[in-house]
Structure formats: C-alpha cells, structure tokens
Design goal:
The complex is a heterodimer of chains A (291) and B (463). By secondary structure, chain A is mostly helical. Helix content of chain A is 71%, strand content 0%. In chain A, α3 packs across α7. The longest helix of chain A has 39 residues. The mean pLDDT of chain A is 86. Chain B is mostly helical and 463 residues long. Chain B has two domains: 173 residues, no CATH class; 240 residues, MetI-like (MetI-like fold), CATH 1.10.3720.10. Chain B is 68% helix and 1% strand. Chain B contains 19 helices and two strands. Classes of the chains: A mainly alpha (291), B mainly alpha (463). The interface between A and B is large, with 89 and 98 residues.
Chain lengths: 291, 463
C-alpha cells in the first residue's frame, strides 16, 4: 500500500468494485421489483380503491381487505390451498420413494435389460407430456379420478411416471463407493439391508433435494390440474384457481385478490426453499455436471 | 456386448439373437423331460412338479390372468382394431342404441396387444426357468428352496422388487398413452369424429400430408413459422441465460465484493416463489393498462400504451427478456459451484504471463465451463424447446394471427400449440402429429449434439 504502484492498483480495484456494486444493486432492484409490487398490491384497499390494475405501485390506503376476502366464505381459497398442500405432500413423499428405488437399482445392480431400460426411458422423455393428456384423462376417468376425484388422480399421475426422473439421484448414488456395499454383503447383509441401513442414511442431501423439488412442482401445476378438475371448483389447486382470477373477464376486480393469494402461497414455499437452499444447490450442481 | 467388435448392423444383430433364441427353445423341448414339455402349454408346470410351487404358481396365475384378459377383450375390441368400429351410436325412436366407440377400441386393442407381448415374454422366461432347473438336476445339484426364492427378491433379485412398481407406472401412464397418441396421428380423430356418437378411423399418412401442405387451410406455413420461432427461442433462451448467468456468478464471486450471500439470496427468490405467481404478475406489469405503461403515460414519455403483448415482435423480445429474469438465478447457482472447481494456479500463471481478465475469461473460464456443462446445456436447450410454463403464463402464445391455422399465435411454441389444439379445437389428430414432430426435433438435436460434446468423447472410455 505504501508503494505508488500498489496504490494505483488498489485505486483501480476500488473503481471496479464500485462499478460491480452498482451493477449488483441494479440487478437486485430488477429481481426484487415484481415481489415488492406483488406485496404492495395485495395490501391495496379493495373498498376505497380499485381491485384491478392501476398505474401506481404504492397503494393510497393500506388495508387487509383482500386477505379478509380470501378467508371469508365467499371463495374456496382455503379449500384450494388445502388441496395443493395435500397434493404436494403426497407427491413429495411417494415420488422420493420411487426415485430412490429406481436409482438404487440402476446404480448398484447389473441386470439384463438395464441399459435398454435406461435408453428407453430417455427416449420416452423426449415426447412432450401434453401429448398424452386426453388418454390420461380417459384412464383417470375410468377409475373415477377426475372432477370430484381429481386430487388423488393428480397425485397418481405425478407419481406414476416419476421413476423416469432418476438422473440426479442415480448420479449421487454412483459417487458412494461400491466397496462399502461389497463389504457389507461379505458380512452377510442382503441387498435390501444395504439399501435401507446404509445407502438411504448416507443419502440425506439427495433425499431432501428430491423431496423439495417434488414438493414445489404441484404449486405450479396448471395444465393437467385444470384439465382433469374441469368445471369442478372444489378440486382446483391454487394455480388453477388463481389463473382463472387473472385470466377470466372479471380480473379487473380480482387482480389485488390474486396478489394477496399469491403472497400467501409464496411465503411458506419461499421460507421452505430458503431453509433447504443448500441441498437444492448441491442437487442442481451435481445434476448439471453429470448431465 | 455386440458393440464390442465394432458397430454391427442392429437389424442383423436382432435377427441373429432371435434365431439363437428360437434354436434354444427347440433344444429345450427336445432335451426336456415330460414336465418341461407340459410347461410349453401350462406355464409353471415344470417348477410345480419339481416342488418349486412359489415360482410355478406365479407363472401359472400370470398365464391365467393374461389369457383371461386377452380373450375377454378380443371380441369387443381387438377384432375391430382394423376399422376402429363401424356401428355408430344412434337414436332409434326414443331409445339410444349404443354402437362402437373408436376411442375404447383403440385403447383396449393396444392393451390387449401389450398383454399378448407380455405373455410371450413370460412364456419364454418360463421355458428358461425349466431348462435351468433341469440342467441343475442333471448335474446332480439341488434346486433352490421356495423360501430362498422368496428371499432372493430382497437380495440378488432386489432390482426386480424395486423396479416393478415404477416400471408398471411408467408403462400405464406414459408408454400406453404415448403409443395411443402415435396411433391417433394416423386417424381422423377430431371435433367431427368424437366418440361415442361419431366414429373415427385410420386415414394413413393424411395428417402428415396436411402438416406439410401449403394450401390455404394446410398446416404447412404455420408449422414452419412455429417451428422456427421454437428453435430461435430455445437457442436464445439457453445461451443468453447461460452467458449472463456465468457473468453474474463471476461478478458475485469477485474478490472484494461483500455480502455475497445476500446477492445470491435475492436472485434465488425467483426460484423459490412459484412461477405462476411471479410470471402472472410480471405479465400484468406489461399489459396495456399495466404498471409500466401507466408510468410511461403519466410521465409523458409516450402518448398511448406500448402494445407489449399484442405486437408480435415486441411480445417475442419481451418473452426472451423476461426469461432472462427467470433463468439467470439457476445458472448463477450452478456456475458458482463450478467456478470454484477451476484450479486457482491456472489463473495465477496466466496473470504472471500478463493476461487481462477478459483473456483469462475467454481462454480459461469459458472452455472449462463448456466442457463441464456440455450435457447440461443440451438438456437446457431441449427443456427450452418444450418450455411450456414461461410462454403460457406470460401471454398464452398470443398475439393470434389471421395467417395461422390451429389457433396458433406469434409466440406459440410447438408444445403450446399442441396444447391449444387439444383443449380449444379438440383437433386431436393434428395435436398428435405435432407431438411426434416435437419428439423428432428433440431427439434429432439431442442425438447430433450429444455426439459432438467434448466431455462425451473423452468419457467414452469411462462408460
């Protein structure tokens, strides 16, 4: 620092740091803007101000009108919210179990048709999911799992094909040394014992990652959920119901209510995500490297 | 195994294997005792007669169930597979006389065909089991006990236990519907041919002809437009996000920048908040009566609202820009982890050689990132080809255009167009054709690019 040369160096660094901070602050503003707007809109008074869209961001009068509306009997919001929680919990639990089973079998065991199965599933995954909608609708309908039974139907569809999403989890299992398995098996432990008492306890990060991703997906599920719950208000999940508030003709009055509903959905999910963020990063990064 | 000695013709390899298998079946019959010979008709007879009732009963019950299923569905469905039904449901007087239902005929015919294939597979396994038992007995060894057979489901055969349910699920809810829809692409199933009151039937390649027909009501020009936009979108959405994401990660990682965790958390909010909330809100910001237009008008910068969502070009640009908002956080997370893996001494020696930061970025950081994330970029690209949520939540593929058929809009991707045709037009046949096209595009790009990836070439020895 005492020397002229390092002085100019540190000056240069200072300037570049200031520029970096300015960019970062700009990025933060852009990225946070919609969330701030959403929260502010949700507090706009429905009684004294308009419930639709306006050309200012900060409400003239803060009130809890919109939240009160959600909890009043005038809407099924609580029911939709409950539906989504039920779907998310079941999908998360069952999907994690299935992914673990498939990943262990594909990572640890060598059986006839293993590569064939993996290749076949890879190819299947290249078909767009919406292609099969009408056929799935019929299959569910024949089991009585549409409209009034749409919630179990949705869970069934989300869980049934989840075996195909084994990539990240298998990648993780591949990194657990096989020598550990071998040692246990020499001691007389069966495959099932190894799986339940060794592999699963060692896979906490990937289990949490899988469960977290599976838990978050149903909150955004619009397409299929709206298709199989068609016309049956009580079976909607929040995504379907809120979308209708925004898109149907009367969104003008429902815009602030949508914002309030959105805030209530986002808060728990965001908190959960932030708590488990480390596991998420680990899973995503691992998945990206292994492809 | 076949690939070991260089690339063989897969068709020849298949028929070779089939021939060997048939010879094996013949040998099983010729050399087999009476128990094995009975097993050719009554599956599981051999194991039962040799005291292995667990395996024997499993084979026997599957045979009975499958044959029952096949027989009970043949009469009503499989025999009509060729025509998909001829008798329409009609009203005679006040009574409704139910006829055929093409939808059910197609679905159950496929199920029956799958059941037959499965039966053949089981039959083959049953023969193999018989031969194995006989050879063991002939060698003077004892057969495994039933209890050991059962225990093996949790040990040497644990894979079968683990995979049974997932494979069944994938079969019923993915394979069957996909095969069904591929079949629909060759029929005239649309709003004029809805079961049960109307029937649909096979039409051969007509729908594919329609897809490439450039007459006024053909799908040709719309298909080309949508396909091109899908490719442009996927390319821009993937690579712009990729480079900007890495740039942001480097910026946050930079020495001397404080509150690294804070900056990351702010960006990660986008991943945490469900997209249907954030994207619907963002879409509304740019509406003609949305916040941005309101501000600009009040500030006197513009006279009337900018048609963000109704001008085709503006809508396309805006969607790509908003997707940057969605995509950067993911890339930032991934890049942050990977950047730390780059050996620091590479940079150190480059610095001693007098390289500028930009030079180091181009010749150290990017090559490393490309190498490591090659397969990820590919999945990212194919994911974007089918990125339904962003397009659909932002503006549902609008603005619609008069020149396009099938309700397509200017920002529609192939998948959103497919969705619209299924939901709005109930034009199932063309939706199925588009679905097959999506598959061909995705699979084609994946196959070609995958061969070119540097990490794949180098890793071949590892695999």
């Amino acid at each position: 620092m005492s020397n002229e040369n390092t002085g100019s160096m540190s000056k240069k660094r200072l300037i570049s740091n200031i520029v970096s901070y300015i960019i970062l602050i700009l990025i933060s503003i852009i990225w946070l803007f919609p969330f701030v707007g959403l929260v502010l809109n949700s507090f706009r008074s429905y009684q004294t101000e308009y419930g639709g869209m306006v050309d200012y961001m900060i409400p003239k009068q803060f009130s809890l009108d919109n939240y009160r509306f959600l909890f009043s009997g005038d809407t099924n919001y609580l029911r939709w919210y409950g539906n989504t929680i039920v779907i998310a919990i079941f999908v998360s639990a069952l999907q994690t179990i299935i992914v673990l089973c498939v990943s262990y079998a594909l990572s640890r065991m060598r059986f006839a048709g293993r590569t064939l199965l993996m290749r076949f599933w890879l190819i299947l995954g290249m078909f767009p999911g919406f292609l099969t909608m009408i056929c799935l609708y019929f299959l569910l309908k024949s089991m009585g799992l549409t409209q009034a039974g749409a919630i179990p139907g949705l869970i069934l569809v989300s869980v049934a094909s989840s075996g195909m999403g084994y990539y990240v989890c298998k990648g993780y299992f591949d990194t657990i040394p096989k020598a550990l398995d071998e040692a246990a098996r020499i001691d007389g432990a069966s495959r099932a014992r190894v799986f339940f008492t060794m592999t699963i306890p060692m896979s906490k990060p990937i289990i949490i990652y899988t469960a977290l991703v599976a838990f978050m997906a149903p909150w955004c599920d619009y397409v299929f959920a709206s298709y199989i719950a068609f016309g049956h208000d009580m079976s909607y999940n929040v995504a379907v119901a809120m979308q209708r508030w925004v898109w149907t003709g009367d969104y003008q009055g429902y815009f602030t209510r949508f914002c309030a509903g959105g805030v209530l959905v986002s808060i728990p999910i965001t908190i959960l995500f932030m708590l488990l963020q480390g596991y998420y990063v680990e899973g995503v990064t691992g998945g990206a490297v292994k492809g | 195994m076949a690939e070991k000695g260089g690339r063989k013709n897969p068709v020849a390899a298949f028929f070779g294997a089939l021939g060997r298998d048939l010879a094996e079946i013949g040998r099983t019959f010729k050399e087999g005792d009476w128990r094995t010979k009975c097993s050719f008709l009554v599956m599981g007879f051999g194991p039962l007669a040799r005291g292995k009732w667990l395996k024997g009963l499993a084979f026997l019950f599957s045979e009975i169930a499958l044959i029952w299923f096949i027989v009970s569905n043949s009469q009503n469905y499989l025999y009509k597979f060729g025509s998909l039904g001829l008798v329409e449901t009609a009203k005679v007087g006040r009574k409704t006389v139910y006829g055929d239902n093409s939808f059910l005929i197609l679905l159950f015919s496929l199920l029956t065909i799958f059941a037959i294939l499965f039966l053949i597979l089981l039959w083959r396994l049953n023969l193999r089991e018989n031969r194995k038992e006989e050879q063991l007995l002939r060698a003077g060894k004892k057969l495994e006990s039933n209890a050991r057979d059962f225990a093996s489901l949790f040990d040497s055969n644990f894979d079968k236990t683990l995979l049974a349910l997932p494979v069944l699920g994938v079969f019923v809810f993915t394979v069957l519907p996909i095969v069904f829809m591929i079949c629909v692409a060759f029929t005239n199933y649309d709003k004029n041919h809805q079961a049960p009151s109307k029937l649909f039937t096979w039409v051969g390649m007509e729908n594919f002809g329609n897809l490439f027909s450039f007459s006024s009501d053909g799908f040709g020009s719309t298909f080309i437009t949508v396909l091109l936009w899908t490719l442009v979108w996927a390319f821009l959405a993937t690579f712009i996000d990729y480079f900007l994401g890495i740039a942001v990660a480097i910026l946050i990682n930079k020495k001397g920048i404080r509150f690294k965790k804070l900056w990351r958390t702010i960006l990660v909010m986008t991943i945490a908040v469900p997209q249907f909330v954030s994207l619907l809100y963002v879409a509304k910001l740019f509406d003609s009566d949305g916040l941005f237009n309101g501000w600009l008008i009040r500030a006197g910068i513009i006279e009337s609202a900018i048609p963000f969502w109704t001008d085709p070009m503006l809508a396309r640009i805006l969607i790509i820009v908003i997707n940057i908002w969605v995509g950067i956080p993911y890339l930032m997370l991934i890049a942050t982890g990977l950047l730390m893996n780059i050996p620091e001494d590479l940079y150190e020696s480059a610095r001693i050689d007098g390289a500028s930061p930009w030079q180091m970025f181009v010749s150290i950081t990017m090559p490393y990132m490309f190498f490591v994330t090659g397969p990820f970029l590919l999945t990212q690209f194919t994911g974007n080809l089918n990125n339904f949520n962003v397009i659909f939540l932002l503006n549902q593929g609008n603005p619609k255009s008069m020149g396009m058929v099938g309700g397509a809009g200017s920002t529609d991707l192939l998948v959103t167009w497919l969705y619209k045709m299924t939901i709005n037009d109930t034009n199932y046949k063309m939706a199925a054709v588009i679905g097959i096209m999506v598959f061909i595009v995705t699979a084609g790009i994946s196959l070609v690019v995958y061969q070119m990836l540097p990490s794949v070439k180098d890793e071949e020895g590892f695999q």
